[in-house]
Amino acid sequence: MALCIGESNGALIMVRTKRDASDCILNLSIFNLDKHLVRSDDDSVAENLITMRLLVKLRFMFFLGLVLACPVTAAPLVNPLVGDFYSEFVPTEMGYQIPLPPGKWEVTAIRVREEPKINTSTTKHVVLKNLDSLAAIPYLVVRYATVIHGTKWASNCANIQKFVYDFSLHGTQLSQKFQKCQKFWTSSLPNSSRDEWWQDLQPGFYSADPILLKESYTKTYFVLFELGGDWVYVDVFARPSKSGFSAKQIEQAARNGEANAWMTSFKAWSEEYFQALDASVFQKRPVAISAFTPPINGINPPLVALSIQTVNSGATNMAANSIAKEDPKLTEEKRLAEERRVDEEKRNKEGHELAVAEAKQKESLRLSAGVRAKEELRLVEDKRLAEEKRLAEDKRRKEEQEGAIAEAKQKEQLRLAAEAKTKEDQRLAEEKRSVEDKRRKEEQERAIAEAKQKEQLRLAAEAKAKDEMRLGEEKRLAEDKRRKDEQERAIAEAKQKELLRIAEVERLNLEKKAREQALENQRLLAEVARLQAEAEKNRQQPELMANRKALVIGNNKYKFVSPLATAAEDAKTIADNLAQVGYKVTLKLDASEREMRAAIRNFSSQVEGGDEVAFYFAGHGVQIGSANYLIPVDVSGESEAQIRDEAVALQRILDEMTERKAKFTLAVIDACRDNPFKVVGRNLGSALRGLAPTSAATGQMVIFSAGSGQKALDSLGPSDKSKNGVFTRVFVKQMQKPAVSIDKILKDTRSEVVNLAKTIGHEQVPAIYDQVIGEFFFKK
Question: Of the candidates 124, 140, 123, 137, which has an alpha carbon nearest to the alpha carbon of residue 89?
Answer without folding.
Answer: 140
